[in-house]
Amino acid sequence: MPTAKTYLNGIKQTSHKVQHPDQKYIEALRTNDMILVEDIYKNYGQMITDLVKKNNGNAQDAMDLFQEVLIILHRYSQEGFTLTCSLKSFLYTLCKRRWINELKKKGRAETLKVADISDLNFAEESKESVEGTEMYDQRFRFCKEKFNLLSPGCKEIIQLSWRKQEDGKYCSWKEIAEELDMSYAYIRKKASQCKARLIELARKDPGFKNL
Amino acid sequence: MTSTNHTLFEDYLRGYISDEEKKRLELVLDSSETEREEFDLYKTMRRTLSPNIGNPYKERELKEHLEELGKKYTHEFSNEVMEMPVVRKAGYVRRILSVAASFTLVGLIGIAAMIPKNTSKALAQAYVYSSDSTAPSRSVNGDNLITSSEEYYLSGMQAFKEHKYETAIISTRKAKVGASPELIQEIEWLMALSELGLGNDAKAKELLTEISTDTKSDFSGEAKELLEDLNGIMHRISSFF
Q1: I need a labelling partner for B38 at 20 to 30 A (CA). Which of A115, A171, B3, B225 fits?
Q2: For residue range A87-99, what is the model confidence (pLDDT) as tens digits?
Q3: pLDDT tens for residues A8-47?
Q4: Are B172 and B100 in contact (CB under 8 A)?
């Protein structure tokens, strides 16, 4: 049976995967390195545009899809996402899968024209990273949906308690109490209640078992 | 489970907890499945949400930058077509198949040359020129002042005439915002033709069906006629080639 320590170390366990050299782009998305982020557009934007245009979409749809995927990667990178394949394969496969879902929603997936040999190679190479990212996105949307159900006061307290300062440390309860002009004891109690509410909201949703 | 445990979880994860409290909590987590599940769920939510919720400005900053890049590259990408890299596998059978395919292609091109041109692009251009109401030079609202919707519509019309269908679609989308009901009819018609010009027959048919069933639209008759052309056998043969 896993102990509390193994649960605590769970976050660090993802760091054993072999990084692809394209991890630099993931790092760029994490740190908002605008030069490298533009390189992502220059190098792969056309590929995604062609993919979407061949399949009932236009350049604007492609750019929207591309932006959506890069935002997901930005979020996932904060959690320590490790890219184990080329960014090209990864972006192509992830965008294709998301675009298929989009077409399915519109009832037009039957016209998809993307299955060729390079497509299959990309899918195989990037399977692990793509599936991990999709699971992360699903988890993120689930958690964010529950967070959005909280009262504005609760959201503010949780936001402050999870905010990291420039030195990478979390704000202390004392600092949070000062910022909100409330007592230390009240803030701790209120934060506890708000977090308990957040967990309760998640638990009530059957989807929490898939997290 | 008491509500104070969540603050304790937080302190534990931050490392702001005394050794005695830490041991006590770990003992509870190891012995109670419910407590462990609660802690695990808390940890998952914290790990998932804290970077986003704790520092929303970072994501907002990136979004703004991506939107700028999107605007910058949409036009550039819409005019180019880049082929996907194909993994080549040399082999005897593959070579024979390539030669056979080349002969078949030459034959098909010959047949295609004999078939009257009835492609989506040709149909779209034919219909736009047959319609007086979509002449690009006319003032849409009859006034001297032109609204931004009209401006976008006219630039979309111009792009369409120049066969820049992607740009035409973008302009018509912008034109729809705040447009008058009469102008919306014209915009929707141009949108349908642009989708057709782009080769998105399915999308074009969807829009044309909407127009054709709208009894108030001045274009319902033309939309019906165009739909019939699109569903006709000659168009299918042309599209195939």
Answers
A1: A171
A2: 999 999 999 999 9
A3: 344 334 446 788 999 999 999 999 999 999 999 999 999 9
A4: no
Q: How many domains does chain B have?
A: 2
Interface ipTM: 0.82
A6 located within any domain: no
Query: Which chain A positions have a beta carbon within 8 Å of B65's beta carbon?
Result: 32, 34, 37
Number of domains in chain A: 2
Domain around B230: 120-240
Residue type, B16: Y
> Is B228 contained in some domain?
yes
- Answer yes or no: do B50 and A34 touch at CB < 8 A: no
Which of B3, B43, B51 minimises the CB distance to A75? B51
**Residue B63 included in any domain:** no
Q: Containing domain of residue A202, as a range?
A: 152-210
B203 contacts on A by Cβ (under 8 Å): 56
What single letter denotes the amino acid at residue B19? D
Alpha-carbon gap, residue A146 to B32, rounded angstroms? 25
Cβ contact, residue pair A199, B41, below 8 Å: yes
d(CA B67, CA A60): 11
